[in-house]
Amino acid sequence: MRKKITVVGAGNVGATTAQRILEMGLGDVVLVDVVEGVPQGKALDLAESTPVVGISGSITGTNSYAETKGSDLIIITAGLARKPGMSRDDLLAANVKIVAEVTRQAAPLSPDAVIIVVTNPMDVMAYVAAKVSGFPYERVIGMGGVLDSARFRTFIAMELGVSVENTHAFVLGGHGDAMVPLARYSTVSGIPITELLPKEKIDALVERTRSGGAEIVGLLKTGSAYYAPAASSAQMAKAILKDEKKILPCSVYLSGQYCCNGVYAGVPVKLGSGGAEQIIEIKLTSEEQAAFDKSADAVKSGQAATGF
Hints:
Elements: E1 4-8, H1 12-23, E2 28-32, H2 38-53, E3 59-62, E4 73-76, H3 92-106, E5 114-117, H4 122-133, E6 140-142, H5 144-160, E7 167-172, E8 180-188, E9 191-192, H6 199-210, H7 212-220, H8 227-241, E10 246-255, E11 261-272, E12 275-279, H9 286-306
């Protein structure tokens, strides 16, 4: 039986995510948005591309959640995007209402689905979706860690002049300014970057990773990143829908792992058909743990502000 994937939000992130999922042949896509005509128009445009790219999946655009019934995966991208000068946390109040309403409508129609949350502030929005849906925490996952690690990998490859395929990186903690890129666990063909780059250069790459989203917002002026977030969401979708058991850094609910409890934060997890099937704990230095704690505390403050 073909998989069914709902993407909520037909803006740049949602539409591009739908395109990637469709072209990867992961299943049939339902694109939902509150603005009449937008999801229908983008879905039709994407459908008309399928003969050219040679894929057989279907895509439907709708303003109603009825057509999402029985989805295997729900990806929430709906929400306000950042503008220059805004932090991810500045979006909290508005996007809490949006994500809560989306979840209230979508979750009951697909009670066995896995939810991926992309909307910022992403860790807090994953918490909201988990609370509103009532789903087991392992089936509500935030996307940020995959994106942050991709940015770190990109900057490492640029700095060293090597293929991004040779770079591997882990960025832990919340998807915000206090995220924790781990240089010790970041490698080029197995060689830690701490042996390839001086500390001051690594520190600069870490800082650029932390402000990677803001850098793009500043350049675009009227929007925020969407190609890399969409690619990151699609990679997670593939791991879940194809039960790949792939280890990826994602935002999940911690209940004692990494010395944290009751908070969503980015850590390495095994992604499969059950969602976040296993949290992988790696040893942190005292300095890294302190940075992780600071990042998790920032997310906890956001969670508390939601009222859930």
